[in-house]
């Protein structure tokens, strides 16, 4: 799930860049995970990483531009319109972080409630998805078949960041930078039966003024698991027209292409992983039944 949603890998027929598959456990100089009570408790044996200089392209960083003649009242009106199409995001309490197999890969169950997840799905469907494909591994691109929406919404990004996600990054530093928010370029993915996203690497993005993305954020809006539900929401699930999701797991691979972690979509669950030079090779497996919806952004460091 790259920032551009697919990655070119040059002439390599496998579609996998050897440079991106380089993995080492003796690289502590460039990535500084600050020693803190949180990381001493949660990540006692994490492999150290070395973020080498990369040549990722500067893209997906379109700022929201406001004409000079726009008044403050008009700006507030536009912001109100943006907010109105999204579900209300309440502050998160008692969130838990689950580290996966001593990697810089972690998930947060129930980050979105069931109502919030369904609200985003509804809003995205009203906006309309566009199918995304690729030329495939023989043309140096990861295989891709899914549907996508991309919007720029700084207000939504800030709301989600400040609802509780920011708490998990208070003690993380990368190259002396700290996490400051989410990329306002928000993407929604939809995978119907038979669709998938082949093995690929997510790129890091330069956003200007010393800002750069280092983590991918995925929030599953549908899945075999569930978020926090009210009695009304649970009773409504008896509707036979709502088909449960089967398949669509996000799978991460190690240096020898062995499976490091396999994450099954669960409604409302957030999944975060490093991207850029130290991004693990990963894929979104084929959806066997139902529809998989995903909210996607990136964590910015500055």
Automatic annotation (TrEMBL):
<dbReference type="InterPro" id="IPR006620">
    <property type="entry name" value="Pro_4_hyd_alph"/>
</dbReference>
<dbReference type="GO" id="GO:0005506">
    <property type="term" value="F:iron ion binding"/>
</dbReference>
<dbReference type="GO" id="GO:0031418">
    <property type="term" value="F:L-ascorbic acid binding"/>
</dbReference>
<keyword id="KW-0735">Signal-anchor</keyword>
<feature type="domain" description="Prolyl 4-hydroxylase alpha subunit">
    <location>
        <begin position="103"/>
        <end position="300"/>
    </location>
</feature>
<keyword id="KW-0223">Dioxygenase</keyword>
<keyword id="KW-0560">Oxidoreductase</keyword>
<keyword id="KW-0408">Iron</keyword>
<protein>
    <recommendedName>
        <fullName>Prolyl 4-hydroxylase alpha subunit domain-containing protein</fullName>
    </recommendedName>
</protein>
<keyword id="KW-0479">Metal-binding</keyword>
<dbReference type="GO" id="GO:0004656">
    <property type="term" value="F:procollagen-proline 4-dioxygenase activity"/>
</dbReference>
<dbReference type="InterPro" id="IPR045054">
    <property type="entry name" value="P4HA-like"/>
</dbReference>
<keyword id="KW-0812">Transmembrane</keyword>
<dbReference type="GO" id="GO:0005789">
    <property type="term" value="C:endoplasmic reticulum membrane"/>
</dbReference>
């Amino acid at each position: 799930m790259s920032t551009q949603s697919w990655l070119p890998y040059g002439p390599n027929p496998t579609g996998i860049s050897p440079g991106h598959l380089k993995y080492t456990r003796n690289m502590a100089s460039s990535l500084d995970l600050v020693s803190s009570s949180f990381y001493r408790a949660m990540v006692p044996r994490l492999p150290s990483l070395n973020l080498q200089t990369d040549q990722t392209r500067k893209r997906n960083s379109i700022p929201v531009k406001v004409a000079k003649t726009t008044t403050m009242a008009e700006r507030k009106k536009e912001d109100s319109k943006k907010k109105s199409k999204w579900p209300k995001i309440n502050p998160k309490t008692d969130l838990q972080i689950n580290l996966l197999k001593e990697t810089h890969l972690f998930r947060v169950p129930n980050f979105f409630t069931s109502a919030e997840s369904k609200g985003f799905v509804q809003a995205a469907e009203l906006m309309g998805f566009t199918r995304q494909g690729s030329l495939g591994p023989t043309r140096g691109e990861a295989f891709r078949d899914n549907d996508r929406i991309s919007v720029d919404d700084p207000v939504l990004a800030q709301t989600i960041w400040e609802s509780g996600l920011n708490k998990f990054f208070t003690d993380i530093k990368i190259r002396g930078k700290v996490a400051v928010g989410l990329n306002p370029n928000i993407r929604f993915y939809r995978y119907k039966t038979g669709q998938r996203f082949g093995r690929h690497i997510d790129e890091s993005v330069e956003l200007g003024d010393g800002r750069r993305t280092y983590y991918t954020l995925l929030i599953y809006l549908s899945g075999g698991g569930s978020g926090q539900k009210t009695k009304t929401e649970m009773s409504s699930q008896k509707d036979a027209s709502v088909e449960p999701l089967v398949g669509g797991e996000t799978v991460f691979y190690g240096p020898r292409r062995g499976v490091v972690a396999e994450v099954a979509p669960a409604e409302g669950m957030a999944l975060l992983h490093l991207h850029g030079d130290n991004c693990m090779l990963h894929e979104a497996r084929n959806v066997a039944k139902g529809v998989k919806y995903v909210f996607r952004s990136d964590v910015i460091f500055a």
